[in-house]
Every structure is written in C-alpha cells, then in structure tokens.
Amino acid sequence: MAKLMLATRFKVLVTLCAITAGSNCPAWADDSKELLKAMSDYMAAQKTFSFDYVSSVEAVTPTFEKLQFVSSGTATVGRPDKIRVTRTGGFADLDVSFDGTKFTVHGKNLDAYAQIDAKGSLDELFDRLQNAGAEIPGSDLLLSNSFDTLMDGVTKSKHISSAVVDGVECEYLTFRKNDVDWQIWIESGAKPVPKRYVVTSKHVVQAPEYMLEVRNFRTGEDVKVANFAIEIPGDAKKVDLSELGQIDELPAPTETGDAQ
C-alpha cells in the first residue's frame, strides 16, 4: 500500500510539473494561438470533408450526481452551405441536414421530423440556431473562421505538451474564459485537424464537461457522396422544431432526475 501511495504521489508530481512548467520543468513555446489559427485556416480550406465522431455531455442532478451521456455519429460538410449529421445515443436517433435552403431534423426514434426555411451559409445557420437555443454541439469548429469565434473572450491560452489521441500525435492546447475553460488536441504536422475538443462549465456545480472526439477525418475524393436532402418516411409526423427538443445530447430533464 505504501509503495502504491508513493507511486501515485510521484505521478501527480510529474503531472503538476508538466502543467505548471515550473523552473525545473521544460517550458513549451507560447504558440497556442498560432497552432489554433493554423487549425482554423486548414479547416476553412477544406470545401468537402467528413468524419466520424464520439461525443459526451455531462449533467448534474439536484443531488450532485454527475451523469455522462455518450453519443456517436457521422458528419459530412460541403462548404459553403451544406451539412449532414447523424447522431445516435441512448435517448435519441437523429438525422440532421441543411441543403442550403432548408434545415431538417428527423427524430428516427420519435417517427417525427421538423423542417424550417433557412437559406444561407453554414455560418449563418449556426448563428441562427445558437440564437434560438438549438445549437449543434461542436459546430464552432466548422465555421469558416473558427479562430475568431473560439478566441472570443479568451483570457489565457497555453500549449501544454504533445499528446496522442486515437493513435495520432497531437498538440495539446488549453484556453480560459470567464465562464468556461476549453481544451483542444490538434493533429501535428501538415493536416492540423481538431481531434478532441473539451469544454468545461467551470461556474456550474461539479463543472460538467462536453467532449467531442473526431475520428476518420476525410477530405476531397475520399468523401463519400452525401445526400443533403433527408428522405422523410411517409408516415413520419411533422412537428415544430421545439417539439423535438434542443439539438444537444441530453435527454429530457424528467429522465435524468431534473438534471441541471
């Protein structure tokens, strides 16, 4: 037991040393903003791309129990005005599409769908959804200029270290805002793809987190042809978008003990 405690303390000390970059620890270059800008520029230059993803969102109950809800899916983007996203989790099975003129959400498990006119670019769509409280999680990474949006309100940034995500070498960056802290792991080298993105609501009880991990990123000819117009089953019921709930990854509050 004593050996286990000493080993654990040693690991903690090593971790703290790496994070604080103290006088006896090697410091990483202060290039976090440059690395983030390179990621933003690279993503903006990709006119057609797709990826698989795994995501999770945490909720805290009134009794301070932290719950984590995990989903997975696919995304295909055609700039400047097309996207198709699927998401399957324990509480929802969604197919979401924007073809440049209409925004459609098909709740497969509900046998219902919502559709609204939304002509414009992806940037305009994401802004509209955010203002309506129906934001697509992780959409800020897909903007034509994600750098400005991500850096808005940032008070401190740091390049922590190199890291490996899903077998890929990455640069690990952290950023602080007044209300949230967020972290991003960006693939090293000529293709700076965001591999993992974590947002922590630090002023909410228990500091719940949202995590998005990108896998199998494909561009150009490697992207399968996507149909950006969802084919809705004839027996599906058309409802208001609000009836399908927010396009997030949480079940209804009654199913989580009034999660906050």
Estimate the mean pLDDT confidence.
Answer: 85
> What shape does the CA trace take?
globular
Counting helices, strands and paired strands, the structural category is alpha+beta
Distance between the terminal alpha carbons, to the nearest Å? Answer: 39 Å
Question: Describe it for me?
Answer:
- This protein is of the alpha+beta class and 260 residues long.
- Helices cover 19% and strands 38% of the residues.
- The protein is built from four helices and twelve strands, in the order ααββββββααββββββ.
- The protein has helices spanning 2-20, 32-45, 122-131, 146-151, and strands at 48-60, 66-78, 82-89, 93-98, 102-107, 112-117, 156-165, 168-176, 180-187, 194-201, 209-219, 237-238.
- A twelve-stranded mixed sheet has the order 7-8-9-10-11-1-2-3-4-5-6-12, with helices on one face.
- Strand 9 and strand 10 form a beta hairpin.
- The longest helix has 19 residues, at 2-20.
- The two termini are 39 Å apart.
